[in-house]
């Protein structure tokens, strides 16, 4: 049909579930974790799919408050993936008006 490529990531759901479990471990049993090894996986998550990156941002924010010394030890390795995410160009969503139109027409203005 054309020169289009569609990539299918069969392991995405499993990886998302694994990172959600990792986030839960931060609340339930942080004292039993090797935080530096945990940060290795967080670093890999920062280079993964968008949904996994969002989970790792949450984990990283939580880790900064729970064990800042460990995060500081790995800061040099975390900066580049964070910088790459911050400098990624966001595509303009062309159908924004279709999302807001039904909400606006559903009732009288609030102001």
Automatic annotation (TrEMBL):
Transmembrane segments: none annotated. Residues 1-94 form the TATA-binding protein interacting (TIP20) domain. The keyword Repeat applies. This is TATA-binding protein interacting (TIP20) domain-containing protein. GO terms for biological process: SCF complex assembly. Gene3D superfamilies: Leucine-rich Repeat Variant (1.25.10.10). Keywords: Repeat, Ubl conjugation pathway. Belongs to the CAND family. SUPFAM superfamilies: ARM repeat (SSF48371).
């Amino acid at each position: 049909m054309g020169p289009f490529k569609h990539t299918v990531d069969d392991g995405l759901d499993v990886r998302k579930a694994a990172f959600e479990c990792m986030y839960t471990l931060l609340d339930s049993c942080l004292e039993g974790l090797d935080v530096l090894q945990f940060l290795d996986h967080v670093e890999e998550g920062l280079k993964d799919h968008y949904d996994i990156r969002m989970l790792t941002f949450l984990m990283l924010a939580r880790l900064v408050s729970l064990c800042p010394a460990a995060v500081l030890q790995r800061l040099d390795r975390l900066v580049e993936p964070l910088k790459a995410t911050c400098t990624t160009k966001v595509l303009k969503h062309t159908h924004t008006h279709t999302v807001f139109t039904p909400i606006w027409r559903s009732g009288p203005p609030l102001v």
